[in-house]
Amino acid sequence: MLNIIKQLRQQTGIGISDCKKALDEAKGNITKAIEILRKKGGKIIVSKQNREIKHGLIEAYIHPGGKIGALIELGCETDFVARNEKFKTLAHDLVMQITATNPLYLAPEDIPKGIVEKEKEIIKEEFKNKKMKEEIMEKIIKGKLEKYYQEACLLKQPFIKDDKIKIEDLISKEIVKLGENIKIVRFTRYSLS
Predict the structure, then answer these.
(1) Which of 1, 18, 77, 184 sees the fewest Cβ atoms within 10 Å?
(2) Do residues 57 and 75 touch, judged by C-beta distance below 8 A?
(3) Exposure b/e, 58-71, CB count within 10 A at least 16 = b
C-alpha cells in the first residue's frame, strides 16, 4: 500500500495523508483515487480563496539580450510555502509568461469598463452589415471578448509551457498541491523599444 501511496503522490503532488484517504475511498484503485482528489481539489481551492496572504516572494526575469524583463509579486499564506521550490518554480513560470505575452491586466474584472465597451463597439461594427438575430450577436460578442481576455488578462492566457492549461488553472493546481491560497499580487513588464 505504501508504494501505491508514493506513486499517487508523485503523480499528483498532493500530500501523503490526502493520497492515503483517497486510496482508501477508492479501495486501492489509483485511477479512482486521482478522480477523487481532482473533485476535492475544487473544494480546496474555494476554501482557501478567502485566506489572508501574508508572505510570498518577488521574482524577476530578464530575457537574454536584456531588452525585455518582468517582475511579479506572488503571495501565499506562510513563509514555509514561500520558500518551497514548487512555489518558486510557479513564480518563475509566471514571470516568464508575463515577459513573453505582455498581459495588460491580471483578470477581466480589472479591465476598465470603458475599454470593454469600446471592444464591444468594435465587434458590433465588424458585423453591422450582416443581418443576424440579437442572441447570435450576443454569442459572437461573448466569444470575441473571451478571445480578447486571453490576450489582455494574465489569468486567462494559455500557459506558454503547455497551451492546454490557463494560468488561472495552473495557479489552482498549485493551491491544491501546496495547501495554501496563492495570489498574484501585482506584476509589471519592461521593454526597450
Answers:
(1) 1
(2) no
(3) ebebeeeeeebbbb
